[in-house]
Amino acid sequence: SSGIDSYVVEVSKSSAFTSTISADTIDGAVTSQLLSGLYNDTYYWRVRAVDAAGNAGTNSATRGFLLDTGVPGQVTLSSPADGNQTNQSVTVIWNAVTGDSSGIDSYVVEVSKSSGFTSTISADTVDGAVTSQLLSGLYNDTYYWRARAIDAAGNAGANSATRGFLLDTTVAQVTASSPADGAQQSSAVTV
């Protein structure tokens, strides 16, 4: 045996390799290759060894991968409406993002007390098949929320528009002031 001299790495858009995009020969001491010039699509690759005598081995098993460098579309918020006032728990709802080549893996839902999101009080990641989130741990105050999609390749979309809502679950207790408790009146009473 004359030892491995080189490897031939082939890339195709067809798993049957009816045509190749590239067939690069690399030194036998190297066992990886950076593939360049590829764009968002599905690709297949295989490799074979060539020995010092010029004999080519059989191709490896074919493997495929999806190259997805595009970011998902922007999330559109559905509910609650901006400026909504409520006295009960809040579930935020958004529309699913579609058309991403690798599919939506998850959504990140952020809540802040600042419309500029200078700080967040929560940032929850929910499954990509889910388009709602019950917000918990909120108390009487004004809150803002937004969402963004993360695709299966790890690309993050832009944040949605921001919406705000007022959560108000308590009513202040009224204090009676006049007439005083036990007062005796000789004319009409105004309270």
Description:
The chain is 0% helix and 41% strand. The protein is built from no helices and 12 strands. The strands form 3 sheets. A 5-stranded mixed β-sheet has the order 6-12-11-8-9, with no helix packed on it. The relative contact order is 0.16. The mean pLDDT is 93.
What is the radius of gyration? 31 Å
Please give the order of strands in the largest beta sheet.
6-12-11-8-9
For the termini, the CA-CA separation is 108 Å
- Integer average pLDDT: 93
Portion in strands: 35-45%
Structural class: mainly beta
How many H/I helical runs?
A: 0
Order of helices and strands: EEEEEEEEEEEE
* Biggest sheet layout: 5 strands, mixed
Overall body shape: rod-shaped
The quaternary organization reads as single chain
Helix content: under 10%
Offer a concise description of the structure:
The chain is 0% helix and 41% strand.
